Predict the 3D structure of the following.
Amino acid sequence: MVTVADTTLDGRCPTGNMASRWEQRQRDLKLVAPHNKRKSTIIVVGTGLAGGSAAASLAELGYNVLSFCIQDTPRRAHSIAAQGGINAAKNYTNDGDSVWRLFYDTVKGGEWRARESNVYRLAQLSTSIIDQCVAQGVPFAREYGGSLANRSFGGAQVSRTFYCAGQTGQQLLLGAYQAMMRQVNAGRIKLFARREMLDIVVIDGVARGIVTRDLVTGKFETFAGDAVVLCTGGYGNAYYLSTNAKTCNVTAAWRAHKRGAYFANPCYTQIHPTCIPVSGSHQSKLTLMSESLRNDGRVWVSKSKDDSRSPDQIPEDERDYYLERRYPSYGNLAPRDVSSRAAKERCDEGFGVGQSKMSVYLDFSAAIKRDGEDVIRAKYGNLFHMYERITAENPYKVPMRIYPAVHYTMGGLWVDYNLQSNLPGLYVLGEANFSDHGANRLGASALMQGLADGYFVIPYTVGDHIATRKLSPVSTSAPEFGQALSASKSRLEAILNVNGRHSAEHFHRALGKIMWDHVGMARNEKGLLKAIDMIRQLRDEFWKDVKVLGSGESFNQNLEHAGRVADFLEFSELLAYDALCRDESCGGHFREEHQTSEGECARNDDQFCYAAAWEYQGVGQESILHKEPLTFEECPLGTRSYK
Amino acid sequence: METGSARPKAGLIDCVGLRWFFRLLSSSIGQKFVMGITGLLLCGFLAAHLAGNLLLFAGAELFNDYAHKLHEQWELLIVAETGLAVLFLAHIYLAFATAAGNGRAREDDYAMKQPKVPGRVIGANTWMFASGAVVLGFVLLHLVDLRLGMEGIDLRGLKLKDMKPFDATVKVLSNPISRVVYTIGAIILGIHLSHGFSSAFQSLGLNHPKYTPMIKLLGKIFAFVIAVGFASLALFVPEIWRK
Amino acid sequence: MNHTSTKALNLTLKIWRQAGPDQPGALKSYTLTDISPDMSFLEMLDVLNEQLIAKGEEPVAFDHDCREGICGTCGVMINGQAHGPDSATTTCQLHMRRFSDGDTILIEPWRARAFPIVRDLVVDRSAFDRIIQSGGYVSVNTGGAPDANAIPVPGHAQQDAMAAAACIGCGACVASCKNASAMLFVSAKVTHLADLPQGQAERSKRVLNMVATMDSEKFGNCTNTGECEAACPAGIKLSNIAQMNREYMKAVLFSCE
């Protein structure tokens, strides 16, 4: 049923010894001389870990950087919300870690659906990230003697996670932000805050600029450059309720896709197991409780169905510590997708707890008994505080209630080993690309990837593009800029002109429900077909019945939101379609038709060991599938078991 | 390249190497620093002044003796008085300068504003400028009464010239206007100090988890002693020694 | 928490409405019924906005993003208190159970000369960026950093630095200060970097430049009322301001800067 392209996609990885591939690529990449760097302009969209670190590092090299963010300041990008930590193969703990083991854990964690060469490079670069961040003044947790502290995270049997209390993402982001602001001060970065990217401009097949809207004045603007670097995050908000910030959206990536960039593996979505459950229909977003809590918290439900006793009334032998029961060697630290499905399975079977029966307990009483409340407070105090603020329950006394929620998206724009999309000159970094996590991301690996891409990969690879492709000078007066600008303008005008009955929020919630019900933690063919139908209907309704007040020439948050919802309504169909076409289970993509007798993922390597990169054909038109075959040399295809 | 804020062009103050000094005096932190230092030094003056004046309770002989000895060292007295005048003027000038800047920084007022510090209703810290102004009035009257009065510049018609210090003081304190102003002045001064004393330490950067609670307590005790001490002079001295 | 509602609330809201930076603004009253006590404050505003859109009135503009208390985007004055009545809580983490049925809630934007109003409850806090830009970093380029464990950082220094670095840049300190002073914000960054060995090389230059920028952005001075500390959702302590005072005087008097 699916249209497959004749040729396969090539990730353009170096060949030969895995450990020296990145070194070899660095040798092959052409350099740009300092005086030519000063003449080159690079557009970086987004200021999270990937965008902030890329903008800073490129500016340090001497490029002119134009940096754009949707927030009022670059320091607020959603990387800031990552709590638990960042992985690095430092082996400071002497517990057997190595670059190879981090590489292996990541490939295995991603169910052999990531590109091996990229993952190996990621593991190699992980150690430099920690060095770089410490040099910037990131206050990583320390032992009393002054050396760095580590903790464990899901999917690993070693302690390789570096952390800053429960605010690791915040501290790493502020490090990148500060490095960036230093370059703003030096005049090497021009900062454009409260700007939303609405299109990229392609001239002669090469990405040469972007169209943005100033969110304060409503003015449309165009910017030209020698390369465009998208660091615009993931698309989790397609589900409406997710742990993503409210402004997280797919617009930049989707517009790039509509201009020819392939979108890879959109069906790989991560549902995080430890989130605060939904409390009512007013819920506007979900809050994550760091996975690090599973170091000390034990997950359980009652052994009897519809047990309405309060948790302290349920004696020890009537409790089902289902993660410890099903996965004895990893226990409560089983990877995210596995833990999430296990929670869903218990709740679907009627063992859920809380008023809605759609949650499970995360219990710290054993840890508090063992270490004392003070030790637990020192480790997780801010998380417990946050939990209490939201639920009005004291987790030191009563077990937390948690339920899975959409958290991270492994899919994204397709990129090669150099992080360049199939559109020359368009680079995609961080969560916005698809490359390193396969079908499931391990905890504390997103921060690692964003920073590896921004600090250590793009500074090398973007130069090669500028040096080898003889780019003719371009200005925003080129006709392509004018066309892209008027297309963006008329799209927003069209939204304003519908003047229907329902708010953008209404459509977003409706889309979220479709996605969660049919394209959520467990998917099947019937549901996916239904979802595609429903999305199409909803999209038609949106364009007939959306109501946005105010004008386009002012600060208009509802208009911004409506534009993003319109893109989610197009994108979500591709997500569901990709899920439908990937007729196997792997990582975050679980097809009910394909499971083992124990309810685990049943992969189909013979048919699906590839990255699915989709080529846009028009709204509602079936996309063309480009397959990038995945081969595994260092880390042969195996079974992913955490038993 | 990365020096940030542009430095002003070299001028006279650069030639004499005082750029740093003017930078200090024009910066917010420098101003608070000077405010704190002058405040604390004035606290020292208050303590000494109160100690001397408490001799009023001991009787005419001891007090006159004390005053006499003080005035014998007139060279030192000139230095001390000049120093005090500089401290006062700097303190007052900075009060005006920072208050003006602070007022401008808010621009539009809130329709409603409530404190969030637990237990804080309207503290001394809200009224530092106002309490300072009252204290200034009190000090000026005090100078008119005794400093000028004793010199024979009799603005208030108290006829203190040629009187012994003890008698002159008792006469001033017996004057109903002075008595009320001195009592209220002393209490307002106490309120001013109850924030000012510990606040000065904070402005000087002397904040430490071990010592700050003690400094805060000390500030309250000091404020109480100064207020009660000076007020008691106005309240009781005339009662005890009225002839 | 000293008060907890469990039943649905009926509320009167008085909200500052202002169409643009140069437009006049005024408080406008709205009534809301049947508000769940489990809603966050921002979800309550979402409900209001949905009702306004349905009625054909322009919704209230307010800044918000992560809605989990870390990004620092949200922040309004609620009944005259920055981020509302709870301590160590951002507006997005404040829940309606904290209010009572029949309450009138007054909502205003942060007010400071340095934070001009963009629209309704949204203000422009880019002055904070300019302060960081003037020195709130360690000047180290990417690449070539020594091994992370090469310079030990004593546990207490790291903890002090982390406590200061936790600032979310929301601006509640400025909003709550009677002088609209930014000292708590600036001192948090000065302290964070002064406490770590990595921050030593630029220690003097940093504090001089950041304070100069802070002053030129027209923030007020500190009068040690402690309101900033009480309003801070990230628990930044007043002692940071004392440390900044110290750092500044040391830099002015003893450094060559």
